[in-house]
Each structure stands twice: as C-alpha cells, then as structure tokens.
From TrEMBL:
SUPFAM superfamilies: alpha/beta-Hydrolases (SSF53474). It comes from Vulcanimicrobium alpinum. Pfam families: DLH (PF01738). Residues 1-210 form the Dienelactone hydrolase domain. Coiled coil: none annotated. This is Carboxymethylenebutenolidase.
C-alpha cells in the first residue's frame, strides 16, 4: 500500500508495528490469516481437531498471538502516533497535509489515534473497528470509512458512530459495499472484491486530494 500511495505522488510511511514482537516473527502471514476465522469462534477446538498435529500447533500459536494483539492496541497506537511529529519534522512533507489510513487492525489504530485527538488533515479507515461513539466529540480530523456489506461485525457499528459524529458536528462519511466481505481491498486474499476495491480506492484518492488541497505530500 505504501508503494501505491507513492506512485500517486505521496510520501508514504508504513511503520513496522511488530518490530519488537518476538512471537510475531515466528509466525507466517498464512498462519495468521488461517487463525483469523477461528479466532471469531467461541470454541475453535472442533476445527483445530481436524488439522494435522504440526499444522494445529502452528495455528494454536497464531490464535494465542492474536489474543494478545488487541490488549496491545494502545501501545501500537503510541508507536503509530509517533510517526506524525516525525513526518512534520521532514523538510519534504507539508505539515498541513498529513493523512492516516489503516486496514483492519490498522483501521482500528487510526480510529484510536483520532479518538485521542490526533489532528491531521484527513484519515481513512478500511474495515477497522470504529471508536466508541462516546468518543466522537474528541475527534477533530475529517474521517471516511469503507466497509464490506457482508462484514456484519464491523458494518453494524457504522450507524451509531455516524449518528454520534453528526451530533458532535464532526465530518465523517461511510461507504458500505454491498456483498463485499472483510478485507475486500486486499488483493492477496480470496476476499478481494475488485469492484468494491476500485471504488474505495478512487474515493480515498479524491478524499485525500480534497483535504490536501490537491497536492500530494
């Protein structure tokens, strides 16, 4: 994604949030992806029992790691937040034209930063958990969101958050793509939904261009 934004003329920074996470380094992306649907089950033991012993052990490690990531969101948000003053310190960055974008957990981290009052020119959340509506008043950054219509656990949160943002007079626009699943933008997964991804990408580029007065940074 950083390269895609760079091709559009932006200076893109993608922090390695797991650089100090020793457990993450022992897991493959495929193992983490395979653990995701099981992490949503109340009891994944029946599904795990279907796997070969070595595979089951790897997925169990990935499940255990996933359970530790949510409590760490605050620390991850601290690391992500430190990128903002760093970017502002650079001579090749317009300090008034910095944006945030995140996908899945990255989207949740963007929401957490905004709810803490982070002030940048624009922010975009792709199928990430939105902040608690009670925190809407603290958000000062224009925000857009992109959600899959078939991703009910996250899409169901949009109406209450949208209402809270409107009540607080905060700029927020959400787009829900009919039939699109979670991670519809990720072209490395079977969840990739080309039409929704194209529409979301075009809207995001327009949103950032409008908020940055048309100039990439």
């Amino acid at each position: 994604m950083a390269r895609r934004f760079a091709r559009e003329g932006y200076l893109a920074l993608m922090p390695d949030l797991y650089s100090n996470d020793a457990t993450r380094k022992t897991l493959t992306v495929e193992e983490i992806d395979a653990a995701l649907p099981l992490s949503r089950l109340d009891d994944p033991s029946a599904e795990l029992a279907k796997l070969a012993p070595e595979r089951r052990a790897a997925i169990e490690r990935a499940l255990a790691w996933r359970k530790t990531t949510m409590p760490k969101l605050s620390a991850y948000a601290d690391d992500l937040g430190s990128a903002i003053p760093y970017l502002r310190s650079r001579a090749d960055v317009r300090a008034d034209a910095i944006g945030l974008i995140g996908y899945c957990m990255g989207g949740a981290l963007v929401g957490e930063l905004l709810a803490r009052g982070a002030a940048v020119a624009a922010a975009s959340i792709y199928y990430g958990r939105l902040p608690d509506p009670a925190r809407a008043a603290a958000i000062v950054t224009p925000l857009e969101g992109h959600f899959g219509g078939a991703d009910a656990p996250l899409t169901s949160l949009v109406p209450a958050f949208d209402a809270a943002m409107r009540a607080a007079g905060k700029p927020f626009e959400a787009f829900v793509y009919d039939g699109a699943p979670h991670a519809f933008f990720n072209d490395t997964r079977s969840s990739y939904t080309p039409a929704a991804a194209r529409d979301a990408w075009a809207r995001t580029l327009r949103f950032f261009a409008d908020r940055f007065a048309g100039a990439p940074t």
